Amino acid sequence: MKLKSNKSKRGKKADTSGVSKATLKLRLLKRLKCTLKYEKLAWAGGATAVAGEDEVGRGSLFGPVVAAAVILDPKYRIRGLRDSKLLDRETREKLAPRIRERAIAWAVAAVDVATIDQINIYWASKRAMEEAVAMLSFRPDHLLIDALRINCDCPQTPIIHGDALSASIAAASIIAKVERDAMISAWDPVFPEYGLASNKGYSTPKHLKMLREKGPTPLHRLSFAPVWTSSAPQEVLEFMLEKEPAEGAVEELPSNQNLANDDDAGI
């Protein structure tokens, strides 16, 4: 006679084979709840101006890294705050002006490509965060930040996956994301082949293909492997070919220049 096993049945473990780390991370973030838990702990400890901070564009191949700092008003709840990566563009663009309008203070700072290539993206991201906090019109007395500490003289609480757990950090994430997306999209007409309006400088197949075929633009991050390993030479813009006049040189005026029209010449 066959005996039945007395082992309890367990739920089947989800098959994650073949799933990228980015997809697994998004699945995790979606399960997390964005609340005021950390803000309430800071308020209970005596803080009155709790700032949340986050950066965006760290993994992009093109353009600046952008950080935002936001001090939410404890008396006003903004519904729908979540990590900007979990929101579609339309929702982010609806929330961003609401955050700016209702927050006690907010600020955005960007660190350019040249600095990123000079000091690396980690330190450039921290610099952007430090500058954003310094630009706040209202000085924070506690800082909630996504997973790290910065050079700031107020108490700090680093929170792993903070943009998915803290409403203040999520608000900063949304502000920074909307701001940076607008910056990168503005360059799309200048470099249309790279699809910047849609990929925002990240490593999409089309973007990588154009890097291989055309090479990087002056706003690509040359310190990033997919950029410096591209086989094509860097694109040169027209203004980069213009030579500055030698020191002490006097520019000749056209023969038909009317020197009497100083006002029209802007002198």
Question: How would you sum up this structure, described in words?
Answer:
- With 267 residues, the protein is an alpha/beta fold.
- The chain has two domains: 155 residues, Ribonuclease H-like superfamily/Ribonuclease H (Nucleotidyltransferase, domain 5); 40 residues, no CATH class.
- It contains twelve helices and five strands.
- It has a five-stranded mixed β-sheet.
- β1 and β2 form a beta hairpin.
Q: Find the CATH topology of the largest domain.
A: Nucleotidyltransferase, domain 5
**Runs with pLDDT <50, length 5+?**
1-11, 239-267
* CA gyration radius, whole angstroms: 25 Å
Question: What is the CATH H-level superfamily of the largest domain?
Answer: Ribonuclease H-like superfamily/Ribonuclease H
Broad CATH class of the largest domain: Alpha Beta
Placed side by side, the strands forming the largest sheet appear as 3-2-1-4-5
Distinct helical segment count:
12
Overall CATH architecture of the largest domain: 2-Layer Sandwich
The run of helices and strands is HHEEHEHHEEHHHHHHH
